[in-house]
Fold each of these.
Amino acid sequence: MNMKIGVIGSGTMGSGIAQVAAQNGHSVYLIDTSQQALDKAKMNLSQTMSRLVEKAKISADQATAISTLIHYSTDLNDLSSCGLVIEAIVEDIKIKHTLLKELETIVDKDCILASNTSSLSIASLGAALNFSNRIIGIHFFNPAPLMPLVEIIPAVQTSTFVLEKCTELIQQWGKSGVICKDTPGFIVNRVARPFYGEALRIYEEGIADFATIDWAMTHFGGFKMGPFTLMDYIGNDINYAVTESVFESFYFDPRFKPSFTQKRHKEAGYFGRKSGRGYYDYTEVAELLMPNENEEIGKLIFNRILAMLINEAIDAVFMQVGTSEAIDLAMTKGVNYPKGLLKWADEIGLPTILERLEDLFSTYGEDRYRPNALLRKMVKEQKSFY
Ligand SMILES: NC(=O)c1ccc[n+]([C@@H]2O[C@H](COP(=O)([O-])OP(=O)(O)OC[C@H]3O[C@@H](n4cnc5c(N)ncnc54)[C@H](O)[C@@H]3O)[C@@H](O)[C@H]2O)c1
């Protein structure tokens, strides 16, 4: 499938997606309204290629071939003969609509139009098009050349042909593609919410400090980073915005309720690593925060957050957002979880997970802790996911 690929938006995501397509032999047109952004993308790619050659990951000839396959332009008309165009511009529905409408006047009728959006519905983007059966979500993770996961999201309008063609293409590009329903947060940004939300809640209740909660998740769970370290890495501004958007999109379901602690950190400009201060202090004079390595508290924290994550993963299966396999693959390949959550649930035993959730639900009396109906049903029928 050696079609010409268009990528619009040459920022963090667009430039990475263009690299992935070029590495797979496609001629790529990378478009941006800003010449400065294009120059930066070109410079970054050249540095990346030099690094890959230095590390002997690719030859100098391959690096030249990849670089020459990417054409940088501010003119949308250059996309006229593309078979697939992926937009990765600013996350604004009005701006995306204007772009898609204009794009449709340039490309052929059978050109697939994809969006890399993280939070907008694919159906709402397709509504801008005359031929809306060509819209699809192709959601890469940052950095696109390194992260193996790609969520493929058909909208209600998307044709089977478009879905099949994109699934095949993503597989050819060596990525792990998972098909998911056009629902808020798709798989990863939905299922991962309790990793942050429940950690913040545990902190707010005064059960433990940031360092202890992080220690519990890395020590007992084998997560590469604890929730607070990870939120500081992602940026509290970005992470809070995703939480708020998922909460609103789910009609204010208390499961996704944002936290005042994170809001205040964001308001204070404590974004995390990028601002030098988040939950932790990243300046040179900072004192290292040490966890309280109390095994009992650590296990309690880990069991509570994991039960909430598993409940969310089960809800995603129940609501047919994706298959069990797709959800486990998404969490291990998209956010590096040490194990698929449903496989983990089987290992611990579904009755134990249900018991932990019922405990939380009866202690707090909050809807946020309600065990999922599918979990109850599976326990009753003595079933497991695998
Ligand atoms: N950053 C992430 O971690 C991440 C991960 C997955 C998905 N996304 C999604 O990818 C998209 C892009 O995010 P990003 O972080 O790469 O943004 P970014 O700000 O780094 O880049 C956006 C680029 O789009 C350009 N642009 C804006 N309007 C344009 C237009 N009308 N036509 C052409 N170019 C235009 C800007 O000049 C800029 O260079 C968003 O939809 C975002 O939700 C982001």
Note: Residues 8-14, 31-34, 37, 88-91, 95, 99, 116-118, 140, 142 surround nicotinamide-adenine-dinucleotide (CB under 6 Å).
Amino acid sequence: MTLKDFEFEDLEQRFPDDASCLEWLRIHLYPNGVFCKLCQRITKHHYTASRRSYSCDHCGHHVHPTAGTIFHKSSTSLRTWFHAIHLMACTGGEVSAKQIERETGVTYKTAWRMFKHIRTLFDEDPDIARRGTPGPETGPSGASLSYGRYRYEQRPGVLGS
Ligand SMILES: [Zn+2]
């Protein structure tokens, strides 16, 4: 299952809000559970909406699944990001920032910034939008997102401010 196989309506259903996007990131990035630095082991974590994070049930330490990804420090909702990635993957990156602005309802400036970030991922690996993910449970665009995380950590300058 890749992102392109999803109809827009399916994507909307699968990711109705930021919590579902973050949950998907969590499952994808920490398939074996979330490791707590303070407890020094994998512990149960619960979602903290206000901080876009998960908090350790034992000590309260926060883990941010968006750290090191293209979503890091972005005030744009994850839902909008997922929507934009879906758009770009479905069109093979041949969608304009103007179209992203129109489809997602963000400002042109925000659309352009998302466009640049997503485009960079696609440019660095043209197969990225086609690459399969383990299954519907890990969700669409998994490869793209983890790849983005990887590239971001390798080349932090690429994604700008
Ligand atoms: Zn802990």
Note: Residues 31-64 form one domain.
